[in-house]
Amino acid sequence: MTAAVFKPVADHAVLVQLGDQISDDLTARVQALDRAINAQMPQGVQETIPAFVNLLVEFDPLVTDHARIEAAIRPLLKNTSKAESTGRTHEVEVCYDGDDLAPDLMRVAEATGQSVEAAINMHLAAEFSVGMYGFAPGYAYLSGLPEKLQVPRKPAAVRDIAAGSVLIAGPQCLVTTLKMPTGWSIIGRSATRILRDDPARPFPFDVGDRVKFVRIDRSTLERAQTGGER
Amino acid sequence: MSEATLKVQFAGPLVTVQDAGRQGQMRFGVPGSGPMDRLSFAAANIALGNPADAPCIEISMGGLMLECISGSLSLAVAGGDFSVDRSGEKDQGWLIFALESGDKLSIRPGMSGSWTYLAFSGNLSSKQWLGHAATHASSGFGGGQLQSGQVLEITQTQRRDDRHGPIVRPSFVEDTSTFQVVLGPQDAHFSPKTVSEFVSAQFALSDAFDRMGVRLTGPELPLLGALSIPSEPVARGSVQVSGEGIATVLLADHQTTGGYPKIATLLSYEADRLGQLRARDEVRFSAIAPEEGIRKTRAFATNCQSYLDAIAVPKGTLEQRLMRENLISGVVTDNDP
């Protein structure tokens, strides 16, 4: 296990680096440190942003400084060595039916040498964990896609992919929240609202939580969409 | 209660509603957004007698034209060098004035500056997202981007005639093309020669410039080895370098994570100052120690507070106005050239 490195970021943050290579163990340690910092909230800390191998600690430079932040966080590193996730498990509904909702599903099945039904079942059987948010509001990178379902990203992005699309690329899966271009493969459409307008609980899951997909049929998706807000 | 309505006759691209920003949601992929130039935004509000974080309109170089359909109110314009035209009466920005039913207002870019702020003596009715009116431009969430034909409603309006007139500009904001950075957090991904080139060479802003950031032109900054850092959190003011060696400065609507190495990060107030430049303006970077960054940012905050306290006072009579302008120069002499 490598030692933690504290890197100053301008006048307002410290990047705490726990390693260089992505691994489940390292990400779990980052998440444990994130929980420990948020449980204690050292003076002047404004927010923490966890990612796969490091986390950013944003602070108020009028109240504290890089050295004080490092001194407050170093003692918390001890507790991250035997990190176990305390995250909650969420179910996300997905409809895999139809070329409009799942335009790349057949190609993914072919590329991974299985039937469409087998590919769907493999996606449903997987347990994902929220590794990081990024790219756009509510874009949660879910790791845990089985190796037998992995395909590389497309050489060029496709424009105007609907919000709620379920995407895969490499070992990751993602449910989009905005109409955006994507180079990932689109294997379904979700009815679960990821983006909310509640400052107290803006997103259903946090980094470290687990996600399971649950299959719904087209009429359930359509009912959810017409009954839904936004 | 009094109300005013203003019709948007024309709004350029990236004219948005902004409050002070939605901090604390970066872990969910949501940047703070808010004003590109935080001091000018606060100045517009404070000089008009508003809370410092009241929703304003951030006006880009595209400009804005409004017509007052009903009501009467005072407005403040602060930030950059923009011109203000009220039904044919021409003025410079950094001004507080009245608008009445039938008046037309046109705000356009002047000699310099990319953003100016329009504050209202009342509450600008605007959509909120996660408790804030700040607009995240690429999603449109928050108060949103202004559209021609849209009608703005200002509630609880009151005239603030005792505040009308010029707003003193913050003379402590330096006017140099050199910007202070702290190196890193990934300066180790560059050779010492590249890092020393970064802090000695001249760059310029390109026209790839929006609320997310601005791409720079200048010497290529080659990465050492392959582009291999895992996606990691990204701060406002980061100078990230793409695989082709091109630097981009990340601003108010930056992505919250990314896989490009950051050669340096601008001090917060320096990022705002750089965001007020225009395409083809030249910039250089000067590296300082993080401790020095903290010291400078605290000095800057002290100057901001004194300045905002001074412009918060209504102008009142001419004699009172002269007195206060003396006070303001007294406050900022430390940093005056």
Summarize this structure as a short list of keywords or feature phrases.
heterodimer; A: 230 residues; alpha+beta; Gyrase A, domain 2; Cyclophilin; 7-stranded mixed β-barrel; 4-stranded antiparallel sheet; 13 strands; elongated; B: 337 residues; 3 domains; 7-stranded antiparallel sheet; 7-stranded mixed beta barrel; 5 helices; 31% strand; disordered C terminus
Describe this structure in words.
Chain A is an alpha+beta fold and 230 residues long. Chain A has helices spanning 24-40, 66-73, 105-111, 116-125, 218-227, and strands at residues 5-9, 13-17, 45-50, 54-59, 89-95, 128-133, 140-143, 158-161, 165-169, 172-175, 180-182, 185-190, 210-215. Chain A has 2 domains: 5-80, Gyrase A, domain 2; 89-227, Cyclophilin (Beta Barrel), CATH 2.40.100.10. Helices cover 23% and strands 29% of the residues of chain A. Chain A is elongated, with a radius of gyration of 19 Å. The termini of chain A are far apart. Chain B is an alpha+beta fold and 337 residues long. Chain B folds into 3 domains: 3-166, no CATH class; 178-288, Beta Barrel (Cyclophilin); 294-335, no CATH class. Chain B has a 7-stranded antiparallel β-sheet with strand order 7-6-9-4-1-12-11, with no helix packed on it. In chain B, strands 14-21-18-19-16-15-22 form a 7-stranded mixed β-barrel. In chain B, helix 4 packs antiparallel against helix 5 (318-332). Chains A and B meet through strand 1, strand 2, strand 3 and strand 4 of A and strand 17, strand 20, strand 21 and helix 4 of B.
